[in-house]
Fold each of these.
Amino acid sequence: MHILLHGLLGLPVWAYFVVAALMIHFTIMSVTLYLHRTATHRGLDMHPLVSHVMRAWLWLSTGMLTKEWVAVHRKHHALCETAEDPHSPKFKGLKKVVLEGAELYREEAQNPETLEKYGRGTPEDWVETRVYSAHGKLGVAIMLIADVALFGIPGVTIWAVQMMSIPFFAAGVVNGIGHFYGYRNFECKDAATNVLPWGVILGGEELHNNHHAFPSSAKFALRPWEFDMGWMYIRALKWLGMVQVRRVAPTPVINHEAQVGLDTVEAIILNRLHVLRHYGRSVIAPAYKAEKQGACAMRSKILSGTRRLMIKERGLLNAVEQRRLRIALARSQALDTVYGFRVKLEKLWDDQAQSNETLLQGFKEWCHEAEQSGVASLQEFAAHLRSYSLPQTA
């Protein structure tokens, strides 16, 4: 009877909470390090021992399969914030994604077209095909038996909490709240936000805007005050020789002595989200501040909030915001000028059909026009833009 109630380990009550927290933490780390950063985006190369341990643990603790998870997530990135996005709050509704995110995942994971198109390059070895895929529910059943055997009757509760953790945190918090609330470092094309600047509970997945800005980066923390716990584990595993970092987000390289050429344009395109962030801070913000300072009460009211709208990704502006922005720009020649230059700059890298020569010529013309604009902050930005360089390779 004692073993039935307390299990083989006979732990005190407080230890159950510790054990459950540790197991959930390892599940989250297996998702972010193996499924997300390695299998999906190829930001890491993992030693087979590490990847096999995480694959086995995910089979036991969630029943998820690598190919299904990877395919659904890649489709999310490819079609983000569209009707075909498997779990976009914009189209599915925030409540549905938060509360029924796991159901949305399972529904998409059963789509053979999704698996075929987006699930390529995932493991197809013996253990994947003969064990994990062939017996998807066996893993969680084994985990239930193990929890009860080790912890007794409380093991049922521990198992239930394990089963609910990923659907709530990953499907609900990251896929739902991470596209609805939070702050944005970068104006990427989708609505991804950083839920918190400290990626502790979800192993770094809280920094969702950073990830969508640079999907293949193995490191999610990109500002000095941000913390990515997953990156901490990556560094430890790298020191042990168990992982190899393939890619991290680019850092702008500024060389004031460099000659303007195709390398300059390539560097700007590589760092385009950094460029837009800098433009918002160094050009749009001071122009907006100057307009507000000299505005009457009525004009100030019209301009209120315009800075945020001018910085925001244009494709994410709703009809009301677009109308407000048009009215404000119509009342301010200065704001209309700096916003127009931002739009022209984006079009340079958005046009995929133009040749390298056309792209370089367009960049030079943009810089020349900015320098002739008479706007001091725009002139300084153009000079700064000419200094972008590609990093030196060893």
Note: The chain has a mean pLDDT of 91.
Amino acid sequence: MRSSELKVGVRSDYYTYQPSATASKIYLYPIAVGYFYYEPGYYLRRNSYDSFLLMHVAEGSLKLKFEGITAVAAKNQFILLDCYRPHEYGNDDAAQICWLHFDGLIARNYYDLITSAHGNIISSENSQVILDAMSEILRVYRDSSPVKESVVSGHVTQALTELLNTRSDSGNKISHSRVIDNSLAYINEHFRESLSLEDIAGNANLSPYHFSRIFTAETGYTPHQYLIATRINSAKFQLQIAGGLPVKEIAFSTGFNSVSSFCSTFKKWEGLTPSEYRSKSLANG
């Protein structure tokens, strides 16, 4: 099919696909695939397109705006986007892009793992393997070949698995491990204060949504859970000190805004009230 989209060259082609009910339940599957020749000044802005998008920059470069991040993907780099969320991309000069919209039961799991490790713009030492898988999907539709969904799904899976396992050297990739390490240190230094998600994400210069996603992928906790765990651990230490502070003072010294909030949260996490925990700890000591 030929695109009528503004500033998409006449040599561009794309193909859409409706997966079977079975494929929708068990496979990763393509929704649309194409190869576009973008003319200078192409720009796309979408609030949502229900799929994930993998792009390979074959020629030129592509500017990306997504989740508060602005970056540029250069020739031979890959872009991976969650198109369920608002996204924008375009180019100043001519560019060629091989692209694949895909979805499936485990698509989000792949997306979260890949982007938490490598960001949304990725350079891969396995780029040819990934590109071959994308090109083979495109060839199937270009040639009007019979679509064997298990085989096509295998190509999607291969491309994503190679991206996941790659050793990325992208200059645009945010070092998520460094960001999270800094955020853990920030929380441990400021947990006694009234911290919000916006405060912690702002310290990392990320949007709250993007920060929460990579924080959870890296630590296994949401930012709020980690903050509460830090406060509870500090309280537990103080409760084990003979002749230590009263429960009320411990509550406020560990960042809780009321004694009742502290006591109910502590019991939810530890199964005991602070006073019960103190009595048990001192008796065992």
Note: The chain has two domains: 13-165, 176-284.
Amino acid sequence: MATVLKNKISEEKTQKVDELAGLFSKYKVVGVANLYKVRSRQQQELTKKFRQDVTMRVAKNILIKRALKKCGKANIEALGDHLTGANIVLFTNMNPFKLSSLLDKSKMKITAKAGDIAPDDITVPAGNTGLPPGPAISELNEAGLRTRIESGSVWILQDTVVAKKGEKIQPKIASVLSKLGVKPLNVGLKVAVAYDDGLMLTEEQLTLDLDGTRKQIEESFGQAISLAVNIAYPTSTTINILLQKASSEAKSLAVASAYPADGMMPELVAKAHASMLGLASKLAQINKDAVPPELS
């Protein structure tokens, strides 16, 4: 009986290795994500959500390493160096940066358990808890929450921080947060390493600051336009700006040199009129100053 069971387990392992090796060979991109703090329900939801684009498999690290060796792809065995703890393997043909971004955006809020580390300050908001008076009052007060009873339910009087960032969440706090429906933990899959057609990419390389990158591109674009305009370099983007600048400078030159070009007469007449008024004002002042005081 023991021999039969052992043979069955060995056969199941062989089938798992063969399946993984086939997937490694089939897909261009392979990612490895750690399952730390990812609960089975979240894992199932993510598998369902991405099933059109990503095939996910969970296996023991030793079986994954055997499959990596068996598939024979160049450099892919290096993925095995990043296998620590429980992992899920992601098979896809999408860009690994897109894969990492999609998974990052798919993180879910979950309730905290005793011993979890607070990712940020955890605040319980003021308001109606929906809990009836009774043992809940003592539990809330022990968690540092000030309460009152109104309309048959317990109300929290003010926003209160019950756990600081980096602190372990105590059992009483975890229980209160669960009762109040506060979900402070943000969990999901994060690609620790990805293999892309022979290229190995680490988590740091896959993490993109999209907002920062977008801002840099916008600033670079603005600087390039400014340089192109300053050196009069014509492109499809700068040609209209250059023509407007040239037209403005030509008009300024024509006005300054009193050149009667087509369309410039109104500006020249306006300038001459302004000069005349200025001269008349100065002459009037000179004449006024020249009149003897006794005759003024």
Note: The radius of gyration is 37 Å.
